[in-house]
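Listing S7. Sequence submitted for prediction.
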Amino acid sequence: MTRASDTARTLSGGAAFNDGSNDVDFRVESNGNANMLFVDGGENRVGIGSNAPQTLLHLQGSEPDIFLRRTDLTNKSWRLNVQSSTGDLNIKSRNDDGSASTTSMVIAHDGHVTKPLQPAFSVHKNATDQNNFATSETTVNWTHERFDNNADFDLGNNRFVAPVTGKYFLQINIRLENIDTAAAYYEINITTSNLAYRFIFDPDYFDSDSVYYSVAFSVLADMDASDTATISITQSGGTAQTDIDGNPNYTWFSGNLVC
């Protein structure tokens, strides 16, 4: 049996355990917490709540959470925990006192990764047409959200507001009705703070005024934090007779943060 005097001695400024380099374990227990701290001296492993750590640091228990915080930042800490019902790993941002906890990422036990707050939206007009829009630039109005993960779409101003700087995939599908062949052109615009992306067509392509015509296009746009993206249609010349169909199956605007 190894004596305490053989494995620990007092040093200047602290204490050394197992100073003789023997393969001796160190364990801290209490009445309610067996193996609260277990140091496997032979395997260079540390276990919390386990007397058989499987890796360098092994946490085990009903709530084996890890709390990370920089001392020079306030209310910008992180918590990692294993969800009790699924075994998924949750990565949460939280305040230092634990008063708020928001799941930022979930790594499922089968490997799938989801980000509940990753910017992603899809909006539509909920069957509200825009009739006889002007022969100039007209903003497309959006009335309903199918989803808006991070609450970044501003319905009141018909625009998406980028929460962070990054590359955003934006796509639209718009059904136009009563196309006027007398117009010089129709132009559909995805306008961001950095650049306007345009789709243009000449209505002379049609033999006569067309009952309907759908336009769909997308772009990977660079956007800075707080930049906006709006959708508009420009009709040059002709008669103000064209409508934007409000059917959500045909007219919608969606996007997401890619990187």
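Caption to Listing S7: primary sequence and predicted structure tokens for the chain studied. Residues 66-114 form one domain. The longest helix spans residues 4-7.
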